[in-house]
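Lab notebook, bench 4. We co-purified these components, and the gel suggests they stay together. Before we commit to crystallization screens, I want a quick structural picture of the whole thing.
Request: model the full complex, all chains together.
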Amino acid sequence: MHGERFYTLAASCPDRTGIIARVTGFFAEHRGWILESSFHADAAADGRAARYFMRIEVKADSLPFMLTELRARFAPVAAELAMDWKISDSAVKKRVVIMVSKQEHCLYDLLARWQAQELNIEIPCVISNHDTFKGFVEWHGIPFHHVPVTPDNKPQAYAEVQRLFEESHGDTMVLARYMQILSPELCAAYPGQILNIHHSFLPSFVGAKPYHQAYQRGVKLIGATCHYVTAELDQGPIVEQDVIRIDHSDSPDDMVRYGKDIEKTVLARGLRYHLEDRVLVHGNKTVVFR
Amino acid sequence: MHGERFYTLAASCPDRTGIIARVTGFFAEHRGWILESSFHADAAADGRAARYFMRIEVKADSLPFMLTELRARFAPVAAELAMDWKISDSAVKKRVVIMVSKQEHCLYDLLARWQAQELNIEIPCVISNHDTFKGFVEWHGIPFHHVPVTPDNKPQAYAEVQRLFEESHGDTMVLARYMQILSPELCAAYPGQILNIHHSFLPSFVGAKPYHQAYQRGVKLIGATCHYVTAELDQGPIVEQDVIRIDHSDSPDDMVRYGKDIEKTVLARGLRYHLEDRVLVHGNKTVVFR
Amino acid sequence: MHGERFYTLAASCPDRTGIIARVTGFFAEHRGWILESSFHADAAADGRAARYFMRIEVKADSLPFMLTELRARFAPVAAELAMDWKISDSAVKKRVVIMVSKQEHCLYDLLARWQAQELNIEIPCVISNHDTFKGFVEWHGIPFHHVPVTPDNKPQAYAEVQRLFEESHGDTMVLARYMQILSPELCAAYPGQILNIHHSFLPSFVGAKPYHQAYQRGVKLIGATCHYVTAELDQGPIVEQDVIRIDHSDSPDDMVRYGKDIEKTVLARGLRYHLEDRVLVHGNKTVVFR
Amino acid sequence: MHGERFYTLAASCPDRTGIIARVTGFFAEHRGWILESSFHADAAADGRAARYFMRIEVKADSLPFMLTELRARFAPVAAELAMDWKISDSAVKKRVVIMVSKQEHCLYDLLARWQAQELNIEIPCVISNHDTFKGFVEWHGIPFHHVPVTPDNKPQAYAEVQRLFEESHGDTMVLARYMQILSPELCAAYPGQILNIHHSFLPSFVGAKPYHQAYQRGVKLIGATCHYVTAELDQGPIVEQDVIRIDHSDSPDDMVRYGKDIEKTVLARGLRYHLEDRVLVHGNKTVVFR
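Here is the predicted assembly.
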């Protein structure tokens, strides 16, 4: 971490020789100062071709041009390497829409990080299927939208969520213990943009009441998983996980309580990686350049 | 954890045979239902005599009398064993006064736990040497006291803190990243009642700027320590500690950020142990019946 | 841990009031010095009745009689409480038969602990389906039995294993990365006596090649599980688990390597708990009094 | 990890623009296939100038020349960047001399890893100030040298150790719980080549009996530290650390036992990083490209 404005290139392309040299050569040619760089060759496996991943931070004022021209000049290099790529600007705050239900821990945690400027984001709004946190969110000067979800109104409710996200110019949607399953349409509309925190160490204990499942099985550690949301429940690419030790004296309620500490920490770490363009999706897996 | 009302005996006495039998015999005689019990014999060492520690939770409505009579009837047993003891009632919420300066993370974390009733406490007030969190605290319906501390007014300032704590009928004072050193008088007035969170893995990096000290030394893990405050800075009995992995790419600012996640978790765990009478002090060490 | 000879009572019984008082009263009556004691009430759940678990270490020479008489005198107390119970003597080394295939890590680890007298056991023999470690084991003065297992000879092979275990007066069988599935007969013959180390964080990745399964799913932590062997593969009561962090740069081979460090540590911890009578089985779960 | 032969460049140089482009451009020019690459800019601090660190693995058979010519051709690039550098060949096993006293755990652990070819090394000899492990080491076909160390013979003893190390063409010396303090001359002769495992989480508990120190202080976690040996006791650059949780019931002897598990794991990890040229020393700190 450093205090300077920088551009971040996050990219992947088919593996071949000379990729780093080509990309860093481009920056060197323009005297771009590379602050941080990470590279990873993902071997061919299971029908996936070998693919190369990279993330490069370049100091903004070391380059003799602005972001638009950087993108224009880099485009031919990217084309040459058949790259999927994007370049973001650290001076432009990402817009994160938070979805929440009735549990405090992730919401308070995210707002504390936002208040402390630890997360360099805008929160254009919080959306909830309950109005529990209306006052708390609005006290922070953040708009709060109550969008109830019932068995009958799901299509309309998720259409409304999507409308609010679009209206907010959201970059990222965070399900901060949002206890409803998003519609397949919403999942499909924002691939790699919706982060969920699941309260188990996936792939164990998919679905409802994972702590109760963990209690039944008698495991000695419980965990939480931050993953991208896809249409298939709890099956999206995993971004971050962690666990905590429990023992025989812990009831399911104790596990719920311990689990919250893991959930909020794992969500915050996963979100940070995502916001800093450190997460590159490869099929159903992620490359995370911490 | 369970939902029933219970009384908690926390006690220690010189070690001898028959202690458990005597104490649990007392409860059995009155048909007291023991929900949880922990025992520990601390061996004689370094001039300390061998001492026996215990914590017993008894279901309130299993006993044929109320707390006052329980205490009266238990007193002779305790006297016989030369015990230091107390019995608390889970239905009586402990009163926790929070001291804070300008950092959000511990304060937000504690208030979220209080809101979620995860911590079964009253917060009669928050005291700060800055007015940063006045609005936030008051939004929660909690009184906020701004007690500035300057090099010149320390005795008066800490006298005022003590007055507020007494007026609040506080049981416990929590320094939730309170960035001033309490007066020796205040420390002496509330032994085993003031909890601090220190942002290093004690005994490493005592004093100021521990993350910068850690950066200088090139350690690979950083930590936080929850301890009772004594007049000697950062030397009080340790209640809880934890660490997080860092590496060469982490600046002191990164460490500060990572450290916050450890600090708030360690403080919350230490506070919970304290509130549930799970921490018994023995010289400069603690027995923690988790 | 302490250096004195002691007897360990490990027991469980239906929950009711007065259990601790009755049991510790028995020891107090004979002036038995309790070195360590643990109690746990397991709530009624899923059709299981509430049950009480305990483990008590009593200093051998504080009692006025020997083990045989202790058992005889305790029997009526146990009967009164409808207890499942056993009392073991720390001076009698448990006899542990190790089963191994071709991987070094767990075998070397166990023998090092045995050499260092960290594990207070006899190893009457090592049994393997390969002869890889014959020389190494025999160098330690331990008999080595090569019992090949083929698709055709399984019943005979496991009959031979059982014969060797009986002949060795084995208390415990440890599958130290033994890569064959025991016969249902063998599993049934020694419930709660056969410990396995499974190379995944169960219940994730049951069965073969768990690290490859973990790689496919893109998890961020991998683990190992020490459990009692039952006829149902990888479904027995879990004794101990732990995990280690991996990332996108780790191949399945890397995971295998990291995993070994977790496997041997988790197996050694689980084995120690088992040998010290710290593990009490309750249905398909365990109470572990660490 | 992968199975192919590769060359590893480990280098550092003053920070400036274009370093990655220059170095990877050199490899690209010769169609060198980069398997893994890591870069780190260490900011100027405390009188240290900003410095750039890198580690690059290039597939050996992708280059049109052998190692000697690679070095010759790379030398001008390195000179241009004022680099400290070395290139090693994965096909050449490093030669690791193990120093041990009377404790099994690290020695057994290292030999198991060597047997399993998990550590790709030669062990030309084991040196000890006791003859405890002579038989065990020789059974593995490894020469064992007993070099007693007494208060009177230290200069001669360490001269003999140095002679044996030289005669063995040792690359690395590993103090696997070697309980003597090396002479300043020996430390000075092999900077960055001697790895020690210290049985505490440095900088806490420097010197003798760290577990007893930890017990006195009442810490809740204990640790181990792998570091390069310098003339100043326990002050050398830290390569790897880890910790394990303890509690009030653990005696110093328990801590010693738990600690061993951490010690051997931390030593093995640190040694692996070192052997794979993942550790670059910068003043009294390390960059570790895991």
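The first strand of chain D starts at residue 6 and ends at 14. Worth comparing against the SEC data before the next meeting. The two ends of chain D are 11 Å apart (CA to CA).
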